[in-house]
Amino acid sequence: MLALALVMLCACSGKDKGSTVSVIKVGTGTITGNFNPFYAVEEGDCAVLDQVYSSIQRKGAGNNLINDLGSIAYEYESDEKVKYTVTVRNDLSFSNGSPVTIDDVIFWYYFLADASYDGVYKDFYLNDIEGIKEYYYDDVNYASVISNLNNNESQIKSYIKRNYADGVDVTSISGIKRVDDYTCTVLFNSRNINAVSQLNATIVSKAFCSADYVKGDAGKIKAMTKLAMGCGPYYLSDYNEKDKTAVLLANKYSLSSPSVFTKAEFTDITSYDDPAKVIKDGKVNIISGTATPGFVSALGNGVKCCFTNAPEYTSLFISASVPLEARKILLGLYSSDDIIDKEFGGYYTKLVRPLSVRFSEYPAGAEPYYQSTLRGAFLSGLVSELNAYCRGDENSLDYRLLSAFSQNLSQFNVKLNVKACKDAEFNSAVKSGKAQIWIDSVPDGDTCDKYEYYNTKGKHNYVGISDPDLDTLTQRLRRATGFTDRKTIASELLKCIMENAVEYPLYQIQIADAYDTSVISPESLIDASEYDGYSDMLAFLY
């Protein structure tokens, strides 16, 4: 796995700040040439965009959002309603020199709320912003219509299409108010722990994007794959489709314009069998990969690396269709630390609760929830055969973990059918209920919110759990305000999840961030502790 991550401070020699080095070469994941901030999904494309575009806030080392090119504050209008004040700095410019205003931020919100938009933020309209659904459906009376359609997706799409086809009826989102050139307010009708992250807009140029755009025709912007009018430290200068290399040049108007590396080359290195060799041979100066003893030892002289926890963790899941007593015995019998240790050496974090350790709410010091049990003899009376799925092939770690589990269960006369498969088949098996046990990764998300995974109505509740206590706790956590409240509620929620025996957290891998010490000096990383992500640091390296 290749992933760009923060190159942390290491004790090694490197270039002085006065070095004449001006080009930094970055090895990254898949680059397709889609550099549109509304639609890009591939890792390499997004890595390029991280340098071209900046957001109001950036993510800090504790997975928390920090004011950067602006700020997001909030105040309670009532017990339920919350008004957010969004500001941008008054000294920002895009790479063509034009000034940034709050209109550019408001344009981001409006475009995401257009029903014809089908990019990575297409669920933005689900935020409980006053007036956003009227705008999305283009009908002030949408609620009664949608109710009568009984959530029939095809009928809802036809309804929206008709609304847009007869002209725009709803031209504004009532909950979004422009205050002045650098400020707007956004009114939420309910408390939501994710509201700030949802409002953390990527700053794009409204003038550049909206020349031919009208509500209901997002395709005009979607076609702009080389869209590159940001206020980040670089701007996109060229893209070589054959070599899959994007060339970025320093943006002289950026507040974090590079002082040494005035040119950055991002190259897709996914086709290389040995990523370590790519940096040793000088093709790139920085790469990141899954930390394993083999990867680290292959780096050689002149290449150093440091380690950070990946922004996801891996768990074993059991469907709630399996009886609770059986689930508890199954998880009590599960043991795979030796296999994981062999795979990663010391380069992973052992989890005891289903939450990324990157979140400050993770209950440090918690003991393992399931102890080894001698009650396996009772298991065959509860279940006799189960289907287990994982992504990948039979050489993958997840397959080996499930195979070891299968062997363990066989002594208790329980048959575990293990299948490794491609994403489409895996997703189908999990969503349809065909998979009763599976291993999958869980991305960090923006907060410690677990509503979508464990509330009865959660859209990612693939285990099919429906528990009143989980519903209450997920709702309370989503509405939590301060850190103390979040940490307390999160701790209760995580215990409740474990008591339901539907998720067993396995491990959180670490990322090895390797860099060529003849090009990058560790002294340039001294102040990196408050940053989380390579994208924040490129402009400060020397």
What would you say about this model in short?
This protein has 542 residues and is of the alpha+beta class. Helices cover 28% and strands 21% of the residues. A hairpin with a 2-residue loop joins strand 6 and strand 7.
Structural domain tally? 3
Structural class by SSE content? alpha+beta
The radius of gyration computed from the alpha-carbon positions, rounded to a whole number of angstroms, is: 25 Å
The gross shape turns out to be globular
Biggest sheet character: 8 strands, mixed
How many distinct helices?
Answer: 18
CATH superfamily of the largest domain: Dipeptide-binding Protein, Domain 3
Helix content: 25-40%
CATH architecture of the largest domain: Roll
Could you name the ranges where pLDDT drops below 50 across 5 or more consecutive residues?
1-19
As a percent range, the share of strand residues is: 15-25%
Distance between the termini: 27 Å
Number of strands: 18
Find the CATH topology of the largest domain: Dipeptide-binding Protein, domain 3
CATH class placement of the largest domain: Alpha Beta
| Average pLDDT, all residues | 89
Would you kindly provide a written description of the structure presented here, covering whatever features stand out?
The structure is a single chain. The protein is an alpha+beta fold. Helices cover 28% and strands 21% of the residues. It has 18 helices and 18 strands. The strands form four sheets. Strands 11, 12, 13, 14, 15, 16, 17 and 18 form an eight-stranded mixed β-sheet that branches. Strands 1-10-9-8 form a four-stranded mixed β-sheet, with helices on one face. Strand 15, helix 13 (397-410) and strand 16 (415-421) form a beta-alpha-beta unit. It is globular and about 70 Å long.
